[in-house]
């Protein structure tokens, strides 16, 4: 039997806070991250808004780094300290840390400027943050990069867990980062008609939903095999009971309308975790606030869990859609819900869409101890990911 994989540390840098604790307090306190985008470069847009990680303090040594690297390093350092990874030989620590768009802000900043004197390409590739973490902390274990659009975070987590199952290292920092709030990227999403026009931000599963709020952020999780974690007396925060990756090959921007692909990935995750649907207490849905995603996801979840079993919410209504960082941020939020016995609501959900027949967490959140939580992520092009965390 394969040895259990556990989480021994986590960290976040999000539009709601500069750490996991401040993010959680803001989330459960009802805060929202929507802010107006100001500056000459935004003049061509009609009331542009985004979710920016304004409170994150960046170390002096990273001031010249791309924004995505700065956020990733802040999140990883919190996770590293929480897990006490300084007690693990650096040669036995691997990384599966990536970004959907890499250092795109640096690339767009320099453009075709022939006077550029710094190696911005070193920060442009999706694997750049993983390499930064290896250099910053001295890790020399396996280093992988999983760039799969908005499911990048869960892809990184799944690959990290597999590395541990294959005994390629003793610990893995898994996660993702994203910082791409730029007029060019924003215009691309706007042209797809998937950016919300609501000043309060997106409203997942609501009958008036009209798109997502673009955001930035990062999260990191430290994964270890349970026996070795216990041996070094690391804080065991949750068990990674099951995970699965999949794909929906229907279309680049559309999903199979009945949610068949989502159902298959969730069923494989439940099978790996050896759990029944009725044992899942809370689901952190992908819930982008777009018309198609929320409808298809709700159909899939209803087919598996019905509308009276697991509580469901999308934290994107509060954090914004953090794109490549969404999966890892929402994984950490799911663990915190598991540990605190508090389930966050879906911000801005005022009038639930009748077609989204799921068990919505009531406004303000609820106190509910659960034994198992499920977190879901999907990306453009059909990449799918699911993970179940269980109480220790």
What does the model show?
This protein has 392 residues and is an alpha/beta fold. The protein folds into 2 domains: 5-231, Peroxisomal Thiolase, Chain A, domain 1; 240-390, 3-Layer(aba) Sandwich (Peroxisomal Thiolase, Chain A, domain 1). The chain contains 11 helices and 15 strands. It has helices at residues 20-28, 67-83, 104-110, 128-137, 152-165, 183-191, 226-231, 260-273, 291-305, 316-319, 326-340; strands spanning 5-13, 34-36, 49-51, 93-99, 143-144, 171-178, 217-225, 238-247, 282-284, 311-313, 342-343, 359-360, 366-367, 372-378, 383-390. α2 (67-83) packs across α4 (128-137).
Structural descriptors:
Peroxisomal Thiolase, Chain A, domain 1, two-stranded antiparallel ribbon, 392 residues, eleven-stranded mixed β-sheet, single chain, alpha/beta, 11 helices, 2 domains
Topology diagram in text:
Blueprint: E1 5-13, H1 20-28, E2 34-36, E3 49-51, H2 67-83, E4 93-99, H3 104-110, H4 128-137, E5 143-144, H5 152-165, E6 171-178, H6 183-191, E7 217-225, H7 226-231, E8 238-247, H8 260-273, E9 282-284, H9 291-305, E10 311-313, H10 316-319, H11 326-340, E11 342-343, E12 359-360, E13 366-367, E14 372-378, E15 383-390
Parallel strand pairs: 4-5, 4-6, 9-10, 9-14, 10-12
Antiparallel strand pairs: 1-7, 1-8, 2-3, 6-7, 8-15, 11-13, 14-15
At CATH level 2, the architecture of the largest domain is: 3-Layer(aba) Sandwich
C-alpha termini separation: 18 Å
User: What is the residue-mean pLDDT, rounded to a whole number?
Assistant: 93
Q: Uncertain regions: pLDDT < 50 for 5+ in a row?
A: none
Helix segment tally: 11
Task: Determine Rg (CA atoms, Å).
Answer: 19 Å
Sheet with the most strands: spatial strand order:
5-4-6-7-1-8-15-14-9-10-12
The proportion of residues in beta strands is 15-25%
């Amino acid at each position: 039997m394969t040895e259990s994989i556990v989480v021994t540390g986590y960290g976040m840098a999000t539009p709601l806070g500069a750490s996991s604790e401040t993010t959680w307090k803001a989330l459960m306190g009802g805060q929202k991250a929507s802010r107006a985008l100001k500056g000459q470069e935004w003049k061509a847009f009609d009331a542009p808004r985004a979710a920016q990680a304004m409170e994150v303090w960046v170390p002096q040594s990273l001031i010249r780094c791309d924004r995505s690297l700065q956020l990733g390093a802040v999140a990883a350092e919190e996770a590293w300290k929480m897990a006490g990874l300084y007690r693990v030989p650096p040669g036995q620590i691997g990384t599966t840390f990536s970004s959907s768009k890499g250092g795109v802000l640096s690339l767009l900043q320099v453009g075709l400027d022939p006077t550029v004197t710094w190696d911005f390409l070193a920060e442009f590739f999706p694997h750049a943050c993983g390499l930064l973490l290896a250099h910053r902390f001295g890790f020399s274990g396996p280093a992988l990069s999983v760039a799969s659009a908005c499911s990048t975070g869960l892809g990184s987590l799944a690959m990290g867990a597999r590395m541990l199952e294959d005994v390629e290292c003793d610990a893995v920092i898994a996660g993702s980062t994203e910082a791409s709030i730029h007029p060019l990227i924003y215009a691309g999403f706007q042209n797809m008609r998937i950016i919300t026009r609501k000043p309060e931000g997106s409203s997942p599963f609501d009958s008036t939903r009209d798109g997502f709020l673009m955001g930035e952020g990062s999260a990191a999780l430290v994964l270890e095999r349970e026996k070795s974690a216990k041996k070094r007396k690391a804080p065991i925060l949750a068990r990674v009971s099951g995970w699965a990756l999949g794909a929906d090959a229907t279309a680049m921007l559309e999903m199979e309308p009945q949610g068949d692909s989502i159902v298959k990935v969730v069923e494989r995750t439940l099978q790996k975790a050896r759990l029944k649907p009725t044992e899942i207490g809370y689901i952190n849905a992908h819930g982008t606030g777009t018309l198609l995603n929320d409808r298809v996801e709700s159909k899939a979840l209803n087919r598996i869990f019905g509308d009276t079993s697991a509580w469901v919410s999308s934290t994107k209504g509060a954090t914004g859609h953090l794109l490549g960082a969404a999966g890892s941020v929402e994984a950490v939020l799911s663990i915190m819900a598991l540990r605190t016995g508090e389930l966050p609501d879906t911000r801005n959900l005022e009038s639930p869409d009748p077609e989204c027949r799921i068990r919505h967490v009531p406004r303000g959140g609820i106190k509910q101890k659960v034994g198992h939580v499920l977190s879901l992520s999907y990306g453009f092009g059909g990449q799918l990911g699911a993970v179940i965390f269980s109480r220790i």
